[in-house]
Structure formats: structure tokens, C-alpha cells
Specification:
Layout (H helix, E strand, L loop, with lengths): L1 H28 L1 H28 L5 H27 L9 H7 L13 H9 L3 H16 L4 H24 L7 H8 L6 H9 L13 H11 L7 H11 L6
Helix pairs in contact: 1-2, 1-4, 1-11, 2-5, 2-6, 2-7, 3-7, 3-10, 5-7, 6-7
The chain binds zinc ion (2 copies).
Length: 253
């Protein structure tokens, strides 16, 4: 009986691995996926700029305290919501769906702790293209700005959230570049305004934990949600990534 269950589990894992492998190959060979990612990056950035322009044109400053408090709330909300999306994505193994190749490519992010150095603008641009949900969020935000009266600080918070969601990708990238970062970034990481590698490393070393990647302040709450609703990535997506690289003789660094 036990043998039967184990065989079934292995078969299921092999089946999933082949789905993962074919999704990655699609991502690498079907140019449509890279093109759609570039288009999404442009849509996100144009929508962020447009929402900011509308905000600047309409914003009236009720109070400085309100302004700062709104930005702090937006910062916390960005850390939490983006962490929640990351949690969902790490646990999503629907490789045969139309977004399957993008999901499989996203799952490669656990493979390395040291990232190749790239210009921050390039990271901001490229990573924004993975955020399909952010495209919808920004388009709805612009629609609301055009058609509804939004209280100034609510509009500020919503626009800041839209921009900080891309910036969170930079914070994650910087935490994987601990030796080459500018002193200011290291300072912000030290005081937990940006994500530090010591804190974020737990996401890569352990399972189903520390999903936040703006500064990690919402991780205690995210960890409770993860334990309750998700199984984790070590025995799922990480296994497929490891097997994929093993087959190609690429080892984890
Ligand atoms: Zn992850
Ligand atoms: Zn990471």
C-alpha cells in the first residue's frame, strides 16, 4: 500500500516536472512570451507615470502629517500585498495554463542567491513585466482617477502603492547584491527600510516563509497566512527547478 502511494507520488512529480520543463522551453523559444513581458513592462511604467501626473495635477495638501502617514500606509500595504502575490506565485504550479511559461520562469528565482549585476532601471523595467496583476490595478486606478472624485490622500496612497510595487522588485534585487550596493542602500537595508539579505535569506533556505520583498515588515503576518493556506515550494516548484538545472549541469550558487 505504502509502495503504491509512493509510486503514485513519484509519477505525479515526474508528470509535473515535464510540464515545468515544457513551460520553460516555451518561454525560451516562443518569442511571444518575451514580447508580452516587454509590452507589460511598458504598460506598467506608462500607467505609473500617467497616474502620477494626474495625482500632481489634482493633489491638494490637507496636512503634512496626513501626507507622510499615507505614504507609510502605502509602503506597508505594498510589502504585504506584493508578499501575498509572491506567496501565491511560488505555490502556483499551473504550468500548462496560458501564463504557465511566465510562472515557470518566475520559479527560477529561488535557484540563485547571488544575482548577476544589472542596472537598477533595467531591473525595474524587466521585473514590472512579470506583474500582470499590477497592469490591471493601474488601469483601474487611472479609470477611477478620470471618472470619480478620489480624496487626495486616498489617491496619493493608491498611486504610491502602484509605483512601490515595482520598486519592491528593486529592493529584492539589491538584497541579493550585498557586496556591490551603494552605501545608502546598505544603510536603508541595515535599518530595515529596504529588504536585507539576512532577513530575506530565510525565504530561500527554509520553506513557505518570508515572502515579503519591499522591507519584510509584514512577514510575521504573511507567515501565518502561508502556514494556514499553502504547502510551500521546497517539495514542489523548487524540486522541478533543481531537477531542471541538474539535467543541464547547472548548480546552485
Ligand atoms: Zn519565492
Ligand atoms: Zn530572493
Amino acid at each position: 500500500m505504502l509502495r503504491h502511494i509512493t509510486d503514485k507520488k513519484i509519477n505525479r512529480m515526474n508528470h509535473k516536472y515535464h510540464q515545468f520543463e515544457s513551460a520553460i522551453e516555451k518561454y525560451q523559444t516562443v518569442s511571444w512570451y518575451k514580447h508580452i513581458q516587454t509590452v507589460l513592462s511598458w504598460v506598467v511604467i506608462c500607467a505609473q507615470v500617467l497616474s502620477l501626473i494626474v495625482l500632481i495635477q489634482t493633489y491638494t495638501t490637507p496636512s503634512f502629517v496626513g501626507f507622510i502617514a499615507t505614504l507609510i500606509c502605502a509602503y506597508l500595504a505594498t510589502d504585504f500585498i506584493n508578499g501575498l502575490v509572491h506567496m501565491f506565485m511560488d505555490n502556483n504550479t499551473h504550468y500548462t495554463s496560458c501564463f504557465g511559461p511566465l510562472i515557470a520562469d518566475f520559479h527560477l528565482h529561488h535557484h540563485k542567491l547571488n544575482y548577476q549585476e544589472k542596472h537598477p532601471i533595467k531591473i525595474y523595467f524587466t521585473e514590472s513585466g512579470y506583474k500582470v496583476w499590477l497592469v490591471f490595478y493601474l488601469l483601474i486606478l487611472i479609470f477611477l482617477q478620470q471618472t470619480h472624485f478620489l480624496p487626495s490622500n486616498l489617491e496619493l496612497g493608491l498611486v504610491a502603492f502602484g509605483i512601490l510595487s515595482s520598486f519592491a522588485e528593486l529592493s529584492h534585487y539589491w538584497c541579493h547584491q550585498p557586496t556591490t550596493n551603494h552605501g545608502m542602500i546598505r544603510f536603508l537595508q541595515k535599518y530595515r527600510l529596504l529588504l536585507s539579505l539576512e532577513h530575506h535569506r530565510l525565504h530561500h533556505v527554509h520553506d513557505n516563509t518570508h515572502y515579503a520583498f519591499l522591507n519584510g515588515v509584514s512577514n510575521p503576518l504573511l507567515n501565518i497566512i502561508a502556514r494556514k493556506y499553502f504547502k510551500g515550494y521546497k517539495n514542489h516548484s523548487d524540486q522541478y527547478v533543481r531537477a531542471y538545472f541538474k539535467q543541464r549541469n547547472v548548480f546552485q550558487t
